[in-house]
Design goal:
This protein is of the alpha/beta class and about 1150 residues long. Helix content is about 45%, strand content about 20%. The protein is globular.
Length: about 1150
Amino acid sequence: MYGDMNLKELSCRRDNVLETASCSLIAPEQIELRTGWVKLLPDDSLEFGLKGRKYHFDLREVSQRAKAHGLLRSGYICVAQKLSQLNNGKLFNLRMVFFATAQMKNEMEGAVESEAEGEIGILPEEPVLASLREKMQNAGQNTATLMELLTFQLGTETFFAYAVKRPYQEKKRDASAREKAADVPEIPEQPMPAETEEAVPESPQQPDIAERTFQIYGNGCMLQVRMVGEGNEAYLSGQKLVWNPKNIPVLRLSKRKLSCGDRRRRVAPSVGDELHSSPGYLDLWNQYSEQEGELLLLRARKVGVLERSGPISLDGEKVVIFLTENSAESLKQLEEGDCLAFTKERPKYLDNEKISWKEYADEKEERAREYCQDKTQREITMRIESKGERKVVLTVLNNDDGVRPEILDGRVISLSIYGDATQIERRKKSRDLIRDENAANPNIVYAIEGIPYLSRDFAKNRPHIKPLSPRVREKVFHNDPTLKQREAIDIALNTPDIAIIQGPPGTGKTTVITAIIERLNELADKSSDLQGTVLVTSLQHDAVANIQSRLHINSLPTVKFGKRAGEEDDLDESVEKWRQENAEKLRQSNPMLRESDSEKNLDRVFGRYLRTPNVQNALRFLQCAETAVPEKAVKVSIRAIRQELELQEFLEQENQQDERDQLIRKIRSLRTTTAGFSDDGPKTAKALQQFLKKKELLPLDSPILRHLQQARDMEKGEVEPEFLIELARDKNELLARCVQEPFYRRPQPRVDIVELYNEVRALAKPTLNAENRILAQYLEQLEENPEAVNESLKRYCFVYSSTLQQSEGKEIRRAKGVRPNETLRYDTVIVDEAARANPCDLMISMAQASKRIILVGDHRQLPHIYDEEVFQELKKKQNVQDQGDIRVSMFQNLLGKVKQLEEKDGICRNVTLDAQYRMHPELGNFVSEQFYRPNGEGFDSPLPAELFAQSICREPMCWLNVREGKEEHPAKSKSLRRMSEVELIVKRLEKNLTDASCQGLSFGVISFYRAQVDEIRQKIRRSEILNAEMERGRLRVGTVDAFQGMEFDVIYLSVVRSEVNTNEEARTRLFAAADVVNAGMHSPKSEEYRKACEEIDEVGRKTFGFITSQNRLCVALSRQKRLLVVVGNGELFGIRRNGMFEPRREAEICVPAMVRLYEKCLEKGVVEGCRV
């Protein structure tokens, strides 16, 4: 509410205020005014009045009377507020504030104003809003709260107080200059206003800001305001909010209405009109998202309602249900990892197929509000762990109180789409924030849509941050940074919205990210709250963990929020490593802390017993307690309890309870869904297999152990659905063997053991002085209380990290102290591997960056993730403005748009790193020439070839030409394998890894086919030497996608495809399509060009397979450091005839890089004809 401040709360200069003026009325009466003007009358009496109400009075104290008369005669105007009035009506108190006057000027011409006549609009910068949120704890009404602090009312009119002095520069002046600045300025006398009802003393209606800077003073605060920009693009920027200001200058008064908007009001109306004049990039992804929702509803309708047969049973923590025969067909539509909903009512969208996704989303929001009031009405969601023909085993996901069978009775069972719907809505919320200019940076929408909104003058006048300091250079860079690395840091720090850093293979993207964050930390105001100032995020957990492990800002690890699907709440490795290292340093520097180990051990063992009050933990505690105290009476009590427990342990020994529980946890952790396996499937399979082998619970030739071996060898994201079905059967079989009848009552700690601990702890003698005991407590927290350490780190970490989806999660909101309906804000958001992110996910984090969003990635490597089914549906509807934009990553789309923006505003927002340090220079130059330089993104390889020496081949590349053997499909698989290549690769690896000259080299084997990877792994497992090297991590086998971001000294690339089998008709279509593309007659956006590209893609995939993907081929050819070995039939790409190389035209069209590579190997004489 405007004018909410009381005049008595206004911060004023002491010389220009009478805090409590003691007054006496000339004619006693009740004063009905709260605030009004004070005038000096000809008879030297004073008048307090407003709009016809006037009260004549005198000041009772001589000093106050002299000060008031002097200021009023000098031309000051006075506003007063009644503080109190005595009952007799004659005596009262005023707070009188005196303002300097000035002739009204129009020096704010060009400043941004609101639509209201005479209203002054100020656009507060983020530091002002952040300071306001911190002080007032009212983040939802920032601007309204600011207006309440800065304005007050006289009657129906709103006023504010301002000054044109520069208080920040006064600190630099000498004492005499400050004294002079504080003097009352000379103001010419002005005639008294006419005595009419509307007359008020002359006051400026607009601040005098000839120097473009002024301050507005209010309730305990001061807002520093500066005009930014020129002409039509000028606006008043609220730049700093100071609480309890000092050295307040003489204030002036303005009766112009003051308004406070957001930074989007910088944008000219014509720019805003352009934004909404036609469909744009955000509209495209709104259509994509809506279609995604429609397909989700369609799947739920196909599943329908599942009918239960028989009672619901509990199997430990699992819920088991059996379905009727009528639901058997619906069960086939479900997969492990899908979720079932148990609801009070039948979902409306199942009966009414006309309900659209938008209608469902609106209803979902309404139901969510109802569930907040009545939790019994909410959906109970369970994840499918395994399923048979009619049996389904489920895990409860969202019921903290647990699930009893009677709670589920009578509920309707259907496919739960709540989680997917929440994900879609979370994405939509971020897009809406961006579209409506309500994101943390309101102007980000203009950058996304490629609409120029800043002038070249803005670019010239904005402050510039230096990219590097000596400290950051020394800490981050082992060698001097390249010019492009410097430029990347410079662009990232100084962008007004988006910075895009393209990093080809080996060009140091992670190093640049680290330098940017170190520099931001260096520039940060350490007196303010820096908790979670920067967010580092990426699409997948592995990418987040990779960058997180490199960041230690202010000697603290980077906290990661969110966990993988099905992952337990274990601490991440980065925090654990930091905790252990600091504990060890503390022990080494303070040897006396070891003396307190017995006390700590007592506490630790007792804490373990409290968490798990079983017989074994109780006995461990009693043994520790007996050695901690010498008192015989206490020892007698200990022995009595111990004898009782030892008998109980003997009775339970046959059950092996702990080991069985451990085994069950490992079995249940086994991932048997595509989503779950892509997170940590191989890791959980390895843990279970090792446990089974160690305890000798299964014979070594067991099929279950063999399947687990295959699973642990697989790479994330490359598992076949058929294999997951087999793995699920194994999981169910193991659970059936291990799970007994459930035990419902949780054991509680024994009262006598708790009392014994308190007695022993009281008798234990302290061995440390006060200072060392504090250190010991800190050490204990480090070693024994990881959860508390993690929570403390959240409060002090400069950098937070999470995946894109989880950057909006409850955990990170709680750490930042942000309510569910508020926007999460970071000064800076950095997205690694941004070219892989789906735009809907990417925009979640883009909406959170108030100062800068930095996208780091490479669109020439693995493509971004989108749903092909959604894309095909949109194509059918033919209502997408530019379907190609769906297949193009947002990273690449923005790269083109920021280049267009630079042409208009002169601000460079993108850079391509141009020096790789990973590969042999010849390999680096080949990758650059084939994939980057044709697009103007070429890079150099400055390191000398000598640094990449190896003894396997005289050149950094070679080709093992395998002509025999055709590729084939394994049983029940759509993938391909070629056994002749498998045999040769394994034989060469055995030779390399046993060669002393290859000691220290790492090896990777890449294929484009899952079946080929499986065959190579199985062959390696039969070799004791190779299997040992794979266990050590020196050797790795996987698909191309699994090798993204990795590097090895030597890479073997298995081609698999061996012959051209394109028929004449397909070949004719391919050549015709290539002519259309190469002729240059059609625009890349034309229908003819698009169809020709699709034709090339279709025929190329049938002939050459996945190797036609330029993105994946780029990754496959850039993982090696020293040597690339291609294994395959070179005649697939060309033949040598009469000493000349003749490329196959199909290969030149579809896989030109492989043609050039084979030709290069022929020229160098490193093509080796091989027989297996």
